[in-house]
Amino acid sequence: MQKLFDSEIKVMEIIWENEPISAKQISLIAAEEIGWNKNTTYTVIKKLESKGYIKREDPGFICTSLISRDDVCKSEVKSLIDRLFGGSKKALFSALLEDEKLSSDDIDELRKMIEER
Length: 117
Prior knowledge:
Layout: H1 6-18, E1 21-22, H2 23-33, H3 38-50, E2 54-57, E3 62-65, H4 69-85, H5 89-98, H6 104-116
Antiparallel strand pairs: 1-3, 2-3
């Protein structure tokens, strides 16, 4: 899976939440929510299409995703773990557990998730 840049993830979020959706509708939402102009949005749509993450169909350049949000999230998390924690999930959890903002409820929920695996 090719890396998605932040701009591409923003457009994918719009598509996932509204698909099928026209390129024009995507550009209107991106203008309102992100402040992008039409050309910026269309450039990102073309990049996503060339990477194989979306398909556009006529009439109306209707866009649909070819990859799920869950698959993108898993890939991004794996990339983060590889880059920042040397591939160690244990190091990631250690960093999370050292974070003072992690509540006891969060810790309990993480513990439960681990036990269920």
